[in-house]
Specification:
With about 130 residues, the protein is an alpha+beta fold. The chain has four helices and four strands; from the N terminus they run αββαβααβ. The longest helix has 14 residues, at about 45-60. The radius of gyration is 18 Å and the shape is extended.
Length: about 130
């Protein structure tokens, strides 16, 4: 894949990549809540909050390159987005294999049977 990219676009150098400036105080995500404490609403989450979560995870969460992750949170969930996607993606690169709720029993079986030994296991409290 790298050879095909290089033949089409040439050698990619760090100085070729430029990002537009975005204030860390700017809104990065509007996360819509389910309304468990009242009416559903959109919560504005700034770049600083997402970056702080990623920095915290990099410093305190025991993830090694190649570790499998098990999660039952959707990526639309703020915690799921920060800790299941942004943290592993920005730290090690990752492969995300989403599954539907109907495949939940396969994940649980793999986990409980010892076939899957995750580096991290994510879930949120169930009510």
């Amino acid at each position: 894949m790298e050879a095909a990219f290089a033949s089409r676009y040439g050698e990619l150098q760090r100085e070729h990549i430029r990002f537009s400036g975005i204030s860390n105080d700017a809104v990065a995500v509007i996360s819509y809540t389910s309304g468990t404490t009242g009416f559903s609403k959109g919560v504005m989450i700034p770049h600083n909050s997402l970056a702080a979560n990623v920095r915290y995870a990099q410093k305190h969460m025991p993830l090694e390159s190649g570790d499998p992750l098990v999660s039952f949170l959707p990526l639309a969930h703020t915690y799921g987005c920060a800790f299941e996607f942004l943290f592993p993606f920005t730290t090690y690169g990752c492969t995300i294999l989403p599954s539907s709720p109907r495949h939940l029993h396969h994940k649980l079986y793999s986990l409980l049977s010892g076939r899957l030994n995750p580096g991290l296991f994510y879930q949120c409290p169930w009510s």
